[in-house]
Amino acid sequence: MLFVTSEIADFVKAGGLGEVSAALPRALRQTHDIRVLIPGYRQVTSGRVVHPVASIPAFAGLPACEIGRIDMADGLVVYVVLAPELYERDGTPYLDENGEDWKDNDIRFARLGLAAAEIASGVGDLDWKPELLHVNDWPSALAPGYLAWRGETMPTLITVHNLAYQGLFERSRLSALGIPDHAFRMDGVEFHGQLSFLKTGLFYATHVTTVSKTYAHEITTAEHGCGLEGLLQTRAREHRLTGIVNGIDDSWDPKRDPLLAGRFDENDAKARRANTVESRDLFKLAISRGPLFAIISRLVHQKGIDLVLETAEDIVAQGGQIAVTGTGEGRFESALTELAERHPGQVGVRVGFDEAEARTLYAGSDFLLMPSRFEPCGLSQMYAQRYGSLPVAYRTGGLVDTIQDGETGFLFSELSKNGLMDGVRRAFDSFGSKKKLAEMRRKAMKRPPNWLQSARRYGGIYQKLMAKQQAMTA
């Protein structure tokens, strides 16, 4: 199998996709020959030995490229699309140093998708050919289309990590990307007069997965379907849409984590408290007998940061403390910083992200505030549970699938200040009962799934798709 992604945490990570791309292929390697394909960003190629193993010709407006190979220490094979003019730049995989979309993102990620399709077709003399193509989100979503337009019948699977990001470009870009004119229709790549990379993948892929069962249902509704609900309803009726909850990798183990101030298990509350002390020190919070609420998140509207700001005064008034770490929209960064200035010792904000600080805060906080407006899967709530911090979350997406309300966290149903405060009040009540809190914490620490469970479900889909393909060609 060829697993195609625009980011992988080993080298470069902009969000949850990077973590999934690092963990899921490794879990799948136990039963499948799965290899990863990623663009050759500077973060990938700098200071590493990348062995060129194949050449891919230019096509339409897409430049020629080489395919390099990196063999990871654990045996995972990572193929790299080597096109320095497209990928070796400062900034993130998607944005320049000013936070703006790269103006040639259509070329950059069409090159990734076409390279994947050509590897699948045997172009380039790679000396290896996959039996199935697994692409992720819009940056690699053209690959199933390129295969279809060339008459290839290899089974393909696309995983939607966030339907809101669709990769929309002008119709005039079809020629440069090598997309045939006949594909620009409703039953094809067209989306409200534009070219949609994501819709291309959803339409041409053999099967669609999302990162939780609830999100798989939500995206078939007008509220969460982002205009693609009709196509996704069709895929659901055809039994070609499946929700599979993400896992968390084995490094999230409070008994072994070297980044923690104190290591612990579900029965060792005393050792866990060392992380609470360290968290308060890091965020300049006063010694307190009240609960510590954490926010470890991108500071953006989707994550419900505005609701946190509306409820913060009430949390502090009731004796709670708040610690925030993350980056995002300037308005939220400023508002949170001002909140901390109004409540010194009770609210601490560190704009930025540091892995050790985040892990310490997961392990040191009592509750994680996660009022996301939508959350395809979410990893933060699983990290928090694994480290004994109970999530307070809106009832949506993967949060529904991973939080047992009243047992491993708290779910609220009204997306408003009152809704969030209802969850917060329940958290305060549980904090007032040491027995109840300890029982919930123990359940939460045992709750999050590991990647092997997810890998088994993906592997089952792989086998069905390949068996169907073999039956068609027999």
From TrEMBL:
Query: What's the protein name?
Result: Glycogen synthase
Give the UniProt family note: Belongs to the glycosyltransferase 1 family. Bacterial/plant glycogen synthase subfamily.
Q: Which residues form the Glycosyl transferase family domain?
A: 285-441
Write out the transmembrane intervals.
none
Q: What UniProt keywords apply to this chain's record, in alphabetical order? A: Glycogen biosynthesis, Glycosyltransferase, Transferase
Q: Where is the Starch synthase catalytic domain?
A: 2-233
Enzyme Commission designation = 2.4.1.21
Molecular-function GO term, any one: alpha-1,4-glucan glucosyltransferase (ADP-glucose donor) activity
> What does it catalyze?
[(1->4)-alpha-D-glucosyl](n) + ADP-alpha-D-glucose = [(1->4)-alpha-D-glucosyl](n+1) + ADP + H(+)
**Briefly, what is this protein's role?**
Synthesizes alpha-1,4-glucan chains using ADP-glucose.
**Top-level taxonomy:** Bacteria, Pseudomonadati, Pseudomonadota, Alphaproteobacteria, Hyphomicrobiales
Q: InterPro entries of this UniProt entry?
A: Glyco_trans_1, GS/SS, Starch_synth_cat_dom
